From TrEMBL:
The protein's name in its UniProt record: YtkA-like domain-containing protein
Bias kind Basic and acidic residues: ranges: 47-64
Signal peptide: 1-25
Lineage top rank: taxon: Bacteria
Compositional bias annotation for Low complexity: 28-46
Record keyword S-adenosyl-L-methionine present: no
Length: 165
């Protein structure tokens, strides 16, 4: 009788350990997929600019080949052109699903130079080409983090980009 009781206790204990191990594996799997899910979500929120040859809608007229940031209802795009004395920057702001050009914004950029110093650029609107332009002087090699701020009728819209020299 004692051996039967001992056998049942051992069998019950092994069963509980097995269930506990299965339960932990399920929690670890759920935890791992929740972590992957939240990492993917956080990545998309902190992602700043993507390079596109054309827009997500497949329209060549909306894609200018630059780095793109979607900020609320605004589509922001920074296109850079290397020149002898620096880079020429074109900044396009479009609003809504129809990508209507925004021409009444006050656009500035804070640029961090490779040596760590900050430079402020003021963009001017080019009515002919329907975008804002500025010049980034200097040819020091490296990455230039750029934070563009557009004030559109009192509404501030920001985009972060990187210019490589």
């Amino acid at each position: 009788m004692k051996s039967l009781k001992s056998g049942l206790i051992v069998l019950g204990t092994v069963g509980l350990l097995f269930l506990g191990a299965c339960s932990n594996a399920t929690q670890e799997n759920n935890s791992a997929s929740n972590t992957e899910s939240s990492t993917a979500t956080n990545t998309s929120k902190t992602e700043t600019a993507k390079s596109h040859g054309k827009s997500e809608h497949g329209d060549k007229e909306h894609g200018h080949g630059g780095q793109v940031v979607e900020s609320g209802q605004y589509h922001l795009e920074l296109v850079t052109h290397k020149e002898d004395k620096g880079s020429h920057l074109d900044f396009i702001i479009e609003k809504g699903e129809k990508h209507e050009i925004v021409s009444n914004a006050k656009v500035t950029a804070q640029v961090q130079l490779p040596d760590g110093t900050q430079k402020t650029l003021d963009f001017k609107y080019d009515a002919k080409d329907k975008h804002y332009t500025a010049a980034l002087p200097g040819n020091a090699p490296g990455q230039y983090p750029v934070k563009v701020t557009a004030d559109i009728g009192g509404e501030k819209v920001n985009g972060r980009f990187t210019v490589k020299q």
